[in-house]
Amino acid sequence: MSKAPGWFASMLSQKCPHCRSEKVFLHPSYSFSFLQMHEKCPHCQMNFEPEPGFYWGAMYITYAFNAGLAITASLVMFLFFGNPDIWVYVGVIAGLSLVLAPVFFRYSRMILLYGLGGKKFDATLYKKA
Ligand SMILES: [Zn+2]
To answer: Residue 5 in contact with residue 12, Cβ under 8 Å?
Structure first.
């Protein structure tokens, strides 16, 4: 039996937190169906929505991602691009937020699922993909 990846690598690759074998989302991040998730893990049957409204909390994580993005982009523009006009800040931050929205959406859900999903990793369920 091969060794399972660590929890962080599994979360980055958007795998089920219980078996770390199957993807949580059905389609790639940059597709029109990027929102769709499996209801249950196809391998271990872990329920990916443990309770109704489980992912409402992911909004706060997305907010934190966007705040971090705005602060980082502002610092980079201020320090390395000579403090441009305010509309440049607004345009760059809004553009990056839109481009990164699917990534932020998915990783905020993954953080919530790994943190509060209610299932720990079970090494006996891991199968090499
Ligand atoms: Zn699973």
So the answer is: no
Whole-prediction pTM value? Answer: 0.87
Q: What is the secondary structure of 28-46 as a DSSP string? A: -TTSTTTT-B-SB-TTT--
Q: What is the C-alpha to C-alpha distance for residues 31 and 25, in angstroms, rounded to an integer?
A: 11
The domain segmentation of the chain, as residue ranges, is 7-125
Q: Would you report the helix, strand and coil content of the chain in percent, each value rounded to 5?
A: 50, 5, 45
Question: pLDDT of 17-63, one tens digit each?
Answer: 999 999 999 999 899 988 999 999 999 999 999 999 999 999 999 99
Query: 10 alpha carbon to ligand 1 midpoint, in Å?
Result: 11
* Residue 64 CA to ligand 1 centre (angstroms): 27
